[in-house]
Every structure is written in structure tokens, then in C-alpha cells.
Amino acid sequence: MRKLILLIVVGLALGALFGQLMQSFPGYWLIRVGDTSVQTSFWFGLVLLLAAFLVLHFALRVLVRLRRPVSRLKLWNSRTRNRNAMKRTVRGLVALAEGRWKKAEKSLVKAAEDSSTPLVNYLSAALAAHYQGNFEQADTLLKRAHLSTEGADTAVGMMQAQLMLDRQQYEEALATLTRLDKQLPNHPQVLKQLKQAYLSVSDWDGLRRLMPRLAAQQLIAEEERHELEKRAYRELLSQAARHPEDVERVRNLWADMPDSLRGDVDLVVLYAEALVRGKQEGIAERLLRHSLKVCWDPRLVLRYGLLSVDPARQLVYAEKWLQERPNDPDLLLTLGRLSLRNAYWGKAQEYFEASQRQRPSGVVCAELARLYANLGEHNKSQLYYRQSVELLDRSLPALPQPSDRDD
């Protein structure tokens, strides 16, 4: 309402001003053509001149448009088809989201030629065809997507890699992703798909090298990264341990390993096993001794007792540990084995029996049975053999067994 009042006031003011100008500046227009003359006031002539200009301008625009009726019609038709294509595209995408793959593919392909974004249509249609199991049709649509838009290599490549992963074509997917990774280093989606591909083909070396890049892009949680790195190094150490001649590779893997994993007991034991097979028992002994200072674990203690580097020195270290853990059954078993390596038969017997008192074990009984047999005390040897079998029998799963009734 205020705007209307303001417009009325402004109009009245302009009218008053215009009237004042007409009174203050009188004049006239005189136009003579032959014997005919036309005379009018200056202001009325000015209004006529302005009106003639507007009419002429409008007429020229109409003439210009009439000169290009076909192009105008084509433009109108193109816009209409584009609007219809957009509607079909939206319907296709909705059908895709709802899982109606056949309808989605049909709508998207039909709208692709008239769409302003044909790449989206073909990629989505390829996904719909893939979900229907029409893999050849999906590949054809991907090719059409590549041809439809310049610079679509990355989008088409990532879609192609994802479809290959879904079809369990892991080697082909990895080849495609490796090419994309060279073209677009540190692309988030490519890195995520690479992680999936490396896991699928058990490429543990590729996976461990990928972890820092994923972390730098904040594409992986810290807990998941730790678990995947541990798994990768565990598999790599196990593989390397099967080739004792390649002990340098084992040591390089350990050197490249993150500090957070070097304290993991499973990995320490695997590394020690690989070193022993590679005839690097001295390094294995120092590794286990250092690890036991940081983290006391039965697996490390028992593995230390199986080494044969310098038995006398090893026994000294182990007896120092016994001062702090006098009732540790695993340490007592290790001391018994180290005593055997030093030919201390009586001491070995004492340590084995002490371990058995702390925790009855079939392994300790077997060690005592073997020791007493070689000492010539066969009665005691037979006693411990029976105990060993009984303890082992208790650890077996409960399964049906033949009985006298069956006979």
C-alpha cells in the first residue's frame, strides 16, 4: 500500500513538473512539405516523436524475429525436448534408488540423447544394467558414457572399477585403479577402491604402502588402519619366513614397520621365527630379550627357550627373570629347556617339576618323561608319559567313542 501511495505522489509530482515546463518553455514544431504544412506545440511534438521511435523499434524487432523463424522453432523444440529429458532422467534416478533396475535403465537411456548431462544418464543406466546382471550391456553403456562427454575418463574409470569389484573381477579392477592412481594421485575414491582391491587379491605389500596415504587423506579410522597394517605385516612376515634365503627382506619389512606394531607379540614371534629360519638366531635372541623387557608374554618366554645361541648366557638371563617371577610356569619350563642345553640334567629336572607343580601340563610331562627315560629311570618316565597322555586327552573335544556295548 505504501508503495502505491508513493508511486501516485511521484506521478503527480512529475506531472506538475512537466506542466510547469510546458508553461515556462513554450514553442512549436512546423513541418512543411510542398504547399502542405503541419504545426503543433513543442511538447506534443516531442511526445509524438518518442511514440514514433518506440513503434519503429518494436517493428524492427518483429521483422528480425520473422527473418529467423526456423531457428527460433528449433530452439523452442530443443528446450522442450531438454525439459522432457530432464523429467525422464529424474524418473530414472528415482527408479534406480528404489531398485527398479529395468525401468531405471529404460528411462535413463531414452533421455540420454536430449539430456544436458548425458554422462550422468549413461553411468546410472550402466549401474542399473549391472544390477540386472546384464554385464555386456553395462560395459556398452560405459563406452557410450565415455564418448558422450569430453574429460569423462576419471568418472567412467571409477564406475568401471567398482562394477568389476562387484563382479569379483579383482585383477582387472586393480589394473584399472592403478592406472587411475597414476593419473590422479591421492584421489579419495580411487584410494578407497584400491584398498578394497588390494584386500581382494591379497596384495599385502600394496596394502601396507597404501595405509599412510589413506591416513593422510583422513579416509580410514585409526583402529581400522592398525588392524589392516597388522594383518598386512603378519602375512608378509609369514610369506617371507617360508623363504629362509630371503632374510634381508624380512629385516627390511621389520624396519619399515610402524613403531606401534613392533610391540605386537604376534608380530614379534613371527619375526623371530623368520630370523631363526634365516640363520639369524643372534638377532632373534636380542629381539626376544628386548621385547620381554617391554612386555612380558608367555609366547615370547617359550620361544626364547627354544633358541640355541649362547645357552650359558641365556640361562643367566632367564634365572634373573625368575627372581622377579618365581612361580611363572612358562618361565620354569624355559629354564628347564635351557638347563638341558647346558647339560645340567638335575637342574632341568628341578625346573620341569617346579613348572608341573605350578600348572600341570602335557608338554612338561613329556619333557620329564623324555629326561627320565634318558637317565635310565624308566618307571618315572612311564609315569610321566601316562600323565602327559591324560592331560592331552582332557584338552581334546568331546566326541563319540567306541565302547564295549558297541561290540
Count of alpha and pi helical runs: 20
The largest sheet is: 2 strands, antiparallel
Question: What structural class should be given to the helix and strand makeup?
Answer: mainly alpha
Strand order of the largest sheet: 1-2
The sequence of SSEs as H and E is HEEHHHHHHHHHHHHHHHHHHH
* Outline: elongated
Distance between the termini: 111 Å
DSSP E strands, number: 2
What attributes does this structure have?
2 strands; 407 residues; mainly alpha; two-stranded antiparallel sheet
Description:
The chain is an all-alpha fold. The chain is built from 20 helices and two strands. The protein has helices at residues 2-24, 42-67, 69-98, 101-112, 118-131, 135-148, 153-166, 170-183, 188-201, 204-216, 222-241, 247-256, 265-277, 281-294, 298-305, 311-324, 329-341, 345-358, 362-375, 378-395; strands at residues 28-33, 36-41. Strands 1-2 form a two-stranded antiparallel sheet. A hairpin with a 2-residue loop joins strand 1 (28-33) and strand 2 (36-41). Helix 3 packs antiparallel against helix 4 (101-112), helix 4 (101-112) packs antiparallel against helix 5 (118-131) and helix 15 (298-305) packs parallel to helix 17. The protein is elongated. The model has no long low-confidence stretch (mean pLDDT 84).
